[in-house]
Amino acid sequence: QSFDWNALASEFAGIETITEPTQVAKLSLDYYHFSPVLQPLLEDKRGNLVVRPQTEAEVLQVARICVKHKVPLTIRGAGTGNYGQCIPLHGGVILDTTRMNGIRWIKRGKTCVEPGVKLAAFDKQARKIGWEWRMVPSTYRSATIGGFIGGGSGGIGSINYGQLRDRGNLLAVRVVTLEDEPRVIELRGDDVQKVNHAYGTNGIITELEVPLAPAYAWVEVIVIFDNFITAAQFGQALGDADGLVKKLISIHAHPIPTYFSGLKQYLPDGKHGALLTIAESCLEPFQELVREYGGEITYQKSAQDGSKGTSLAEFTWNHTTLHARSIDGTLTYLQTFFFTLERVEKLYDHFGDEVMMHLEFLRVNGQAIPAGLQLVRYTTEERLNEIIRYHEEQGAFIANPHTYILEDGGRKTIDVEQVQFKEQVDPYGLMNPGKMRGWEERE
Ligand code: FAD
């Protein structure tokens, strides 16, 4: 006998509930299609209905109903993840957090927000009093803070603060459990790692305390180079220059700049490009560094004009892949920590045009290191795995974006603490089932 989803929907009385199939289908998917491997695995996955609670009390009500009927519950922020993080593998209820978008407070260096707060909308408020997020993904205009913590890793700002999982980048969370009698648990200190980047498999985050960064007057700059390795060395030097305040160092080997239709006039054919965000107060010494490396500045957008037009940030991180795929849909990508420029050079020479070099510099254990989201001319899954293997043999670390399994992406090992927390708060395994290997394979 099939489950009566309409009857279930009526139990959510008072909470916005969506059952209309095309809308439910839309709210079931994310940007998994960047991966030709995930595409066939996830394209037909759907939830049965969507709920949009507005308060923690309503979240508790949703949790209670899901537990009573033992139906899966998958949390969704803006649905901009790339690995199907929020795609329900086994149907059930989709809990959309976008109506929980209140900012509780912003004070010196930290904030307390609800999970559905959009990253860009928050920055607009916080900058009025001199603060902003420490880091944002290139999807900051639509992505939510809950989704960034749940399924993201880092981005613009990571050159200063590292990644979301680094200690200090998340201060506290409140989570709703899926026990017979759902509870609210507050996690602080290292305990936040129990739910940090867990794909919503072990608790519904209803509130977050997040540290902030001082908001500088940021200038966007494009610098071009004749030689890719020089561009990469320039990126490293800028990353290492402690006196130069920056937020983004994104380096693109030819022919990647040719995919940026909107930036054509600043990225002449054949050149390699650096897309940067620099503090206005540092522009003069920054220009000296550009000169030292023989670069040429072709574009500069002042802090004042910051909100006008498309931001350069929206050509970096995985937006690079987005632009490239809009021109050539056969392209896909990798996420790689190279750690050294020698390794970047070796892999650049080895793969040539098959793996186009896109570097993002970020801070790891106090050092600026080259990481990247290279574009791959996809042929077969076997070849893709061969490319990944070769990178690993050379000592690079690949956070594989072609899997929806939490541990098979960036982590590689089972996080015992996260699994144990799931045993405690989700004893029936209802939360985003099928994503956490450590849970699926226990015993
Ligand atoms: P969703 O995709 O809706 O959710 C992500 C995960 O978090 C899901 O597993 C979901 O279940 C879980 N989740 C959501 N809310 C909660 C909650 N309240 N409690 C518990 N779990 C929850 N990512 C980066 O890290 N850096 C980048 O630079 C970056 N660039 C991107 C560029 C493009 C073009 C695209 C398509 C994606 C990019 N991403 C990037 C991935 C993604 O956009 C970000 O990680 C984003 O922050 C996810 O937020 P979201 O609201 O869309 O989350």
From TrEMBL:
GO biological process: lactate catabolic process
Pfam families for this protein: FAD_binding_4 (PF01565)
Domain spans labelled FAD-binding PCMH-type: 42-215
InterPro entries, per database record: FAD-bd_PCMH (IPR016166), FAD-bd_PCMH-like_sf (IPR036318), FAD-bd_PCMH_sub2 (IPR016169), Oxid_FAD_bind_N (IPR006094)
GO molecular function: D-lactate dehydrogenase (cytochrome) activity; D-lactate dehydrogenase (NAD+) activity; FAD binding
Coiled-coil blocks: none
UniProt-recorded name of the protein: FAD binding domain protein
Organism: Coleofasciculus chthonoplastes PCC 7420
